[in-house]
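Need tokens for this chain, all 587 residues.
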Amino acid sequence: MESTIVHFGHEHPLMLEKSEEIHHRCNACGLYVMLSPCYMCTIQGCNFYLHQACSQLPHQLHHYYCVGRYEYVEKHDLALLSKPRNDNCLCGYCGKLCENFTYHCSECEFVVHPICGFPLDIQINHISHPQHPMLVFGKEASLLCDACGRKHEGYFFSCHKCNFWIHQECALLPSFVEVEEHQHCLSLLYSASSLLGLYIESDTCLICLKIAIIKSGIYYCFQCGILAHVDCAISRSRNKDSGAIFHMPIVSSDMFLGSILRAIEVKEGNSIKMLEKYHTDLSLVLMDDSTAQDLVCNACIQPIHSPPYYRCGAHSQCNFLLHKFCLDLPLSVKDSVYTTTTNNLFSPRLDEFFSLFGCFSCQTYCNGFGYLFGESDSIVDDVECSLAPRVINHDSHKQHPLILSTASTRNIESWKSCCGKSYSSYRYFCDLCNFMIHIDCARLPKSVTHKFDEHPLTLTFASSNSTDDDICEFCEEDIDSKYWLYHCVECDQSFHVKCIPSQGEFSKIKFGGSVEVPCHKDHPLTLVRMMNLGSQRCGYNCHEIIQGFEDGMALHCQDCDFWIHFHCGYRSCHGKVSLPYQVFSNL
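Here are the structure tokens for all 587 residues:
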């Protein structure tokens, strides 16, 4: 199977990848791609998807039995079209409107859906039945759905080994709901077996107060043991549009925010109003340059791997860049845990070089966009933490979903975790297993690169069977086997997560900007990262060592080889001993 193809039905190349979302439809058959390998467009923001099976549809069906307009049968050749000839085409078999690919007969104008006219072997993976892949039942049917317990008409996904059937719309049930009747979110469990071993406070439905007969799916509170019927929970849900399941880890860091924004269906160009407020001299130009490299978005501080993207057109030397989807960031969001709080989007000013903040949720430094909240908007979250999903499924803990919360009510000293750090205000918890993941660790991608290894490095979770500690190839210090790491199988090399530049302590800082400082008037100084540089001596009043080969920031003049600490640069410009409240004092 080719990893990249050119398909007649789309203008851009398509790449074979595993979909990280369930809400995308295949542009050929119209069914959901689910969490399964499919061909997707390589251009950012172009939502074109094809099942593997649908990518191999024959371009012609020879000697096909057409049902003619006068109800007689003829054998003709049908051609596969990427869209119907007109807006009113009806499938000659099922009688429903054709909206995607169609097989069309030019002799008698007979039209048929691909799924109605050709035996498609479409396989999908779904959390409701993780033990086996499921097949699409090729004809519409009227059957009992094992997820909700009700009878449905339409297309079903089925596992014939287990006699398990789920209607395609029930496969999109939100993974969690928030209802007025309960203070915690309720998580979806697809089968009665999922409740085995779980604490159940009452066998009555939280909402209708009738007995919750558990023969199929149920909504369950992991903190209280409360149950609710699927239909009851959905009817009372406050988050009907935000319950999409997010499976993690993600493939690459730059995919996370785009996936979130597609799921919540934001309005295009949302953040333009905010940008006009903070940046009066900003002119954005949409770029389609696929050759540009080492581009970093000013909003999410993630790499821009492919067009389209925006850059500032007002000044040729300006390095202000945005993912196309980052221009759609909502102007305000509800806090992911404390839903009564509204957080407003803001951006550091382009004319204030030292305008940084510390993200409240993940406790990392950032000079990108953020959301303000708290009294007098005194607290900031970066955009990825502000829009983080409330409930996730993560490969490090496949037994149960993980719920975003604070550690304030839990004694977490003995809990299993992703790493040894004690900070991070928000974390994902499984209260049943005493397991937690920091909000930023949950976003770690499946694979990364490092200049010390020619191969991709794979995220490896803690192993309870491992007793030997690895040595980090970068810092040459021990890696505790209890915690996550990145590993190269080919070279048998391991790295701390913190020693990966794209994931380290300063990975939310966009470097490369320059500033004029009074203590060095000859040339502007450039903001650099010390992770791959040797130690230097500060040329400002402190004359102390700027530690090299550690994740930190400094200001450097390449012409004069002049170095100063970041905080010394701030003091030189502002004449203050300490940095502003948004900036951590040890920078």
